[in-house]
Amino acid sequence: MPQRRLFVTTALPYANGSFHIGHIMEYIQADIWVRFQRMQGNEVHFVGADDAHGAPIMLKAEAEGITPEQLIKRIADERPRYLKGFHIQFDHWHSTHSDENTQLSQDIYRRLKAGGFIYSKTIEQFYDPVKGMFLADRYIKGECPNCGAKDQYGDACENCSSVYSPTDLKNAYSTLSGAKPVLKTSDHYFFRLSDPKCKDFLKEWLEKPGRLQPQVVNKAKEWLEGEGDKALADWDISRDAPYFGIPIPDAPGKYLYVWLDAPIGYLASLKAYCSKNNLDFERLLEDPTEQIHFIGKDIIYFHTLFWPAMLHFAGPPYRVPDHVYVHGFIGVSGEKMSKSRGTGIDPLRYLDIGMNPEWLRYYIAAKLNANVEDVDFNPDDFLARVNSDLIGKYVNIASRASGFLRKFFGGELKPDSSWIAEFGALETERDIREALEAREFGRAIRTAMAFADRVNQYFDAQQPWALAKKQETSYVRMDLLTACSNCIAAFNALTVWLAPIVPSTAEKARLFLGQDKPFAWDDWKIAPRQIEKYEHLMTRVDEKQLNALFDIPEPPAGAAPSPQRHAEHQQHETKKESTVSEHISIDDFSKIDLRVAKITRAEAVEGADKLVKLTLDLGGETRTVFAGVKSAYAPESLNGRLTVVVANLAPRRMRFGVSEGMVLAASGEGPGIFLIAPDSGALPGMRVK
Fold first, then answer.
1. What is the model's pLDDT at position 338?
2. 3-class SS of residue 620
3. What CA–CA distance (Å, rounded) separates 179 from 171?
4. What is the DSSP letter of 305?
């Protein structure tokens, strides 16, 4: 196969917050594919960057009393810990707030304007007279013009799902200052996305076989071929000062909209990387370099319409992407990942409690395919899959066979060529190679584990423990040596195939196998001749670690504190409970939204000693709350009772699900937990004041 040259990127994370698990999933996916390409001998340039411009960053920095530059630097300083922690190896990480991005963005703008693809027109939009700035839809709230629901955003109603213009809102107000916005005109710059030449190009670009997944092509065509109010509209690419972004070179006080300069950040990162490594940036952009983007499904519109059109009509050296690979979202136990709802996994917490990053790399890979499908992190499935596959199948081969080889043969191996046919290695390698190339990582892992099963079955059938007991003849001794050597040869192949997914474990295995250089893909067939002493390559997932990941501290099974520690703890708790807390203001108390709730269903939680799952009626709204009251109440005794719940407590992700509030209970020096209950006549949803 001729060597390929690849320019690979991932979507740029917005620089107003830390990485979340969705970012890590995407970077793991791209990193696996890049590592596989390099093992094949292909030349890869893998770059990323922070998306560092826009009003949200400007406003957050202002709220914190710092400059936008200070904010994005603080966020950028966090990035290496995440990337190194999960073995994600970008060649370069940059920022859209850079000289390279300014130069390239302004160059593309000038080229598009010279080509007749940019024009200006006067538009009317809401303006905050207190903040002195025009307001994006997300900074405007008011009453829905359709159903009258209050505090709805400027583009759609969360209550009745109607879509409207911000100017349709009743009693609109700015979320930034609370002021009533006023209508004001401004000249804005637009990219002619609806131009027939642009639409003809995009139609051709979308239809090239293999460029995009079929689901992505269909979605992009819906936008491209829409009619009436769904017709493809020209793209507003400018914003008014004050704005943190790149100035439009021929329009003082105007800035390029963040979504214009953000994807150009891919090229800016590559340009900075080229300068650092004495590479010719423009030459690297030319054919036969393949330009490949890994992105999430929420930004298809920008990457399949705006981005290729900008590049195409800007002209050489810019060129359109060869592939845009789109993935779905990641959720936890069936819940969509949401920071505000507490339904995510904190990547740093995962690392800080000592969980192996390669467990997560493997688990995510096992869930991924080439379609635009969501991925679900299920804690029980995670524990079972990692322990069964990586420990029970893969690592098990090396730990079982190496002991006999070290004890009886000094670590020397003499595999025969039969292991390749015995385990179906040729077919397995082909299937895994094709699956990894196609980003069908789940299929690659299933194929690899089927291979591991065959090796373990062979080991059991050969019964080396029995051969080791009766080494009277040289034939028996040779049978033992061959059987264990063949298993290690197969383990070597399996390690090569899994190396893009679990690179650190593969490197440790390489040293154990006595291989003297980093693995290339074809090394799967080179059986080792001498192994080193076997050291544990990976430990099992402990259920306690999953409890800690989801913040459910539980004491070890059967453990009890010493009498002295128990007494000290009781004294400490008694002192705490008897001392009134520090004063708070009435404003502090008013922040707590206490509501009457009716327990419509109470259930025991399997695997939890203290928790009861409560389904609560808050006057038409249903909530799920996990309460630690099992020691005091049988679940069935709670059905139909009224209680009081903290309704505006941030949802908390637990191993058993999401808890959407907290019921109030009293406890004291003695035993017992007592639910707080309102007097008769109170109705679900009533506020407690």
1. 56
2. coil
3. 11
4. I
Q: Please, which residues have CB within 8 angstroms of residue 210's CB and are 6 or more apart in sequence?
A: 323
pLDDT, tens only, 364-409 = 999 999 999 999 999 999 999 999 999 999 999 999 999 999 999 9
Q: How confident is the model at residue 195 (pLDDT cuts 50, 70, 90)?
A: very high
In degrees, rounded to 5, the angle at the alpha carbon of residue 253 between the alpha carbons of residues 251 and 254 is: 60
The owner of tokens 């539980």 is: 554
pLDDT at 164: 82
**CB 107 within 8 Å of CB 180:** no
Q: Give the separation between CA 351 and CA 87, rounded to whole angstroms.
A: 12
Distance CA 171, CA 144 (A): 9
Q: List, edge to edge, every strand of the sheet that includes 118-128.
A: 133-134, 118-128, 182-191, 235-236
β-pair partners for 119? 190
Phi-psi region of 634 (alpha: psi -120 to 50; beta: other; left: phi over 0): beta
Rounded to whole angstroms, how far apart are CA atoms 246 and 239?
10
Q: Maximum Cα–Cα distance for the chain, whole Å?
A: 97
User: 68 vs 2, which has greater pLDDT?
Assistant: 68
Average pLDDT along the chain: 90
Q: Residue 85: phi, psi to the nearest 5? A: -60, -35
pLDDT at residue 551, as a whole number = 67
In three-state form (DSSP H/G/I as H, E/B as E, the rest C), the secondary structure along 503-535 is HHHHHHHHHHCCCCCCCCHHHHHCCCCECCCCC
Q: What is the predicted pLDDT for the residue at 575?
A: 39
Q: Hey, what are 675's tokens?
A: 């639910």
Structure tokens at 408: 């009886």
Q: Residue by residue, what is the 3-state secondary structure of 382-425?
A: HHHHHHHHHHHHHHHHHHHHHHHHHHHHCCECCCCCHHHHHCCH
Angstrom distances, CA of residue 172 to CA of 126, 154, 157, 181, 182: 10, 8, 13, 7, 9
Name the phi and psi angles at 283, rounded to 5: -65, -35
Beta carbons of 133 and 126 less than 8 angstroms apart: no
At 684, the amino acid letter reads P
Average pLDDT over residues 122-145: 93
**Three-point CA angle 48, 199, 52, nearest 5°:** 25
Residues contacting residue 8 through CB under 8 Å, at least 6 positions apart: 30, 33, 34, 44, 45, 46, 47, 292, 293, 294
For 468-481, the pLDDT digits (tens) are 887 666 778 899 99
Q: Are 168 and 142 in contact (CB under 8 A)?
A: no
What gap in Å lies between CA 409 and CA 81, rounded to an integer?
A: 43
584: helix, coil or strand?
A: coil
Higher pLDDT residue, 672 or 141?
A: 141
| Tokens encoding 252 | 């003082």
> Which two three-digit tokens encode residue 529?
């001749």
Rounded to whole angstroms, the Cα distance separating 331 from 82 reads 19
Q: Is the pLDDT score of 585 beyond 80?
A: no
**Phi and psi, residue 509, nearest 5°:** -65, -40
Is residue 578 very low, low, confident or very high in pLDDT (cuts 50, 70, 90)?
Answer: very low
Q: Give all strands (DSSP E) within 33-156, no chain letters.
A: 43-50, 92-95, 118-128, 133-134, 140-143, 152-153
What's the whole-number mean pLDDT along residues 568-596? 60
Of 578, 625, 579, residue with least CA distance to 600: 625
Q: Are 57 and 68 in contact (CB under 8 A)?
A: yes
C-alpha closest to that of 144 among 106, 171, 110: 171
Which secondary-structure segment (H or E) carries 589?
helix 586-590
CA dihedral 94, 99, 103, 104 (to 10 degrees): 0
Gap between the Cα atoms of 72 and 93, Å rounded: 13
End-to-end, the C-alpha distance of the chain in Å comes to 73
Distance CA 676, CA 597 (A): 11
How far is Cα 466 from Cα 640, in angstroms, rounded to an integer? 65
